[in-house]
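Protein modeling request. Please complete all fields; requests missing the sequence field cannot be processed.
Requester role: graduate student
Desired output: 3D structure, token encoding
Chains: 1
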Amino acid sequence: MNIAIIGAGVAGLAAAHDLAKAGHHATIFEAAPYAGGLASGFRDPRWEWPLEKFYHHIFTTDKAIIDLAHAIGFGDKLFFRGQVTAQWWQGRGYDLNGPLQVLRFPALPLADRLRFGAVAFYLKYVTNNWQRLERTTAASWTSRWAGPRVYKALWRPLLEGKFGPYADEVNMAWLWSRLKARSFKLGYFVGGFQGFSDALLAAVERLGVRVRLKSPVSGAHQRPDGRWDVLAPGQPAETFDQLLVTGAPGLLRKLAPHLPDGYLGKLGQLRSMGAVVMTLALTKPLTDGIYWLNTPKDEFPFLALVEHTNFIEPEHYGGDRLIYLGDYLDPGHEYFRLSREELLERFLPALKRVNPQFDRSWVRDSWLHREAYAQPIAPVNHGRDIPPLQTPLPNLFWASMSQVYPWDRGTNFAVELGQRVAREMIEGKL
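Delivered output (430 residues):
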């Protein structure tokens, strides 16, 4: 088959890799001048490695991306190490990266800490029945089984931080998936996730895939014989046997407005939070070794503070100490309109709470990245609302982070999604 893929993110590249390995011809159209999608990075002239626009790491349990890295000859560039993940409470961060650390967390009585540990153990190691868990909200389930104090201290801040006004709607399967799929050690690539994306891009090109960067698709039209014409500005239309669209639901609606009402209705029901991430290059370290600090939204103007250079050595970034200040917000939130300078004025004063010695003179540079489609919202019984990968229009497929459910979005599940849609495309033509 001759196949068009819209989007050179990790899912699109993974699909192209498997399609090409199966003997099919693929062409990738990507609007950006680089591959990687939400995992892509940016560079400062003094850095050896690029840095992700939106903080990234993988887990030791992320089999799909680990296997793919080895398959393309990039496995030796992947490494895992421990780090400190902390929760802010009463003026300091407390390490919660392990059972013993949780048992020492002073925000809860010992009985509640034990109850939290038992519930977390059950979710991570005992139950796999996410279908049952999706029938209730995470708020009600954790309040009942972990107790109201545990819910208020640990689960409520996470849900509110991730989903804001939708916190009470999110189902328990989403929270289960976060515990089930994650490990205490985290993984990273030499050269960052842009290095992995570039290696995957090179691998698919070696397999014969044509990759057209800086080539946004302006339209797609189906021929009477079921094939698809793909239109890109300044280029003649090309005809393909199958078309795969990766990306947000809005992109699919734009390219295929004639999808049946039922499928369009499912697309319209999919809601998501956006991401706003400010990255700071500091001349001094901010925290005392903390990589990830969860910050309560009623005390801080952002959800998480991630000191990347407490995980990856600052030598790779010209000695800069790199800090992410990230938040998940409704796409209509003012943070999507404010300038970088205006957001700096909101964010910087909070850093003195983390480190009283912090001074604005520590900030060498800053960058602001925003994405309206970053965190799908999973309400009760969400599984029945997920549109299938194969759309009702012949030879048209769609793969997005909304379809990795019940798992949470991430590069590993983007790889799995790309591989899954490639199988469906191949099987659909057998």
